[in-house]
Amino acid sequence: MLVAAAVCPCPPLLVPEVAAGAAPELDAARAACTDALGVLAAARPDRLVVVGPADEPGPESYPQGTPGTFRGFGVDLDVRLGADHDLESEGTGRGLPYGLAVGAWLLARSGWADAPVEGVGVGEALPAERCAAVGRDIAARPGRLALLVLGDASACRTLKAPGYLDERAAPFDAEVARALGAADSAALAALDVTLARELKASGRAPWQVLAGAAGDAALAGTLLYEDAPYGVGYIAAAWS
């Protein structure tokens, strides 16, 4: 049963060592993520599943202890998923995708030790129906479930954005922010997969996993942060 969810953006720039001199520009986003993780801890979950974007459709599973790194961004910084080092992850030969690595960094930063952690990666090619099924499967396992859901909104908000300016981006992001702030699972499930791909919204699949996991749960949502620095939509919210 899903008892709480934290929704956070996952740009590598959220990590101050990666952002370097630009780090203060995302201080408000980091603070919102900290607040969202606090909601998860307060829910006293039995397990935490971190869901984030991946290169392959997936779903791909990442056990507690799976390593991630930011060396590809020129920073000598490594992370692991969860507080404990799970030796089972040593032989997988697969590290965390960048979004889940950001999630691992957020958990380490918050000192998460409230429940065991595992990761699930889902890519932009995973259909909405399959995302919902993944969420339902996660929620059907025994115990109180918390989700940390990672992903960015459109990358087309300005001329200098990674995807250039697209007039559809702002309305898309506004609807996502409304749905996340209202814990509106139906609206998240109905997001247009093609439009999300064209707007380079990496959060679409993870958000639809959240929608599937929430089902008919009577959770309330709070929008904690919404902005578009660098022309990319970043949204943070908490459900409980």
Describe the structure.
The structure is a single chain. The protein has helices at residues 16-19, 27-42, 98-110, 128-140, 169-182, 185-189, 193-198, 204-214, and strands spanning 2-8, 47-53, 60-62, 67-69, 78-80, 117-122, 145-150, 221-227, 234-239. It is of the alpha/beta class and 240 residues long. A 7-stranded mixed beta sheet has the order 3-6-2-7-1-9-8, with helices on both faces. A two-stranded antiparallel sheet has the order 4-5. β4 and β5 form a beta hairpin. α4 packs across α8. The radius of gyration is 16 Å and the shape is globular. Residues 86-91 have low confidence and may be disordered.
**What's the overall average pLDDT, rounded?**
93
- What is the makeup of the main sheet? 7 strands, mixed
Q: Report strand order across the widest sheet.
A: 3-6-2-7-1-9-8
Overall 3D geometry?
globular
- What is the chain-wise order of helices and strands? EHHEEEEHEHEHHHHEE
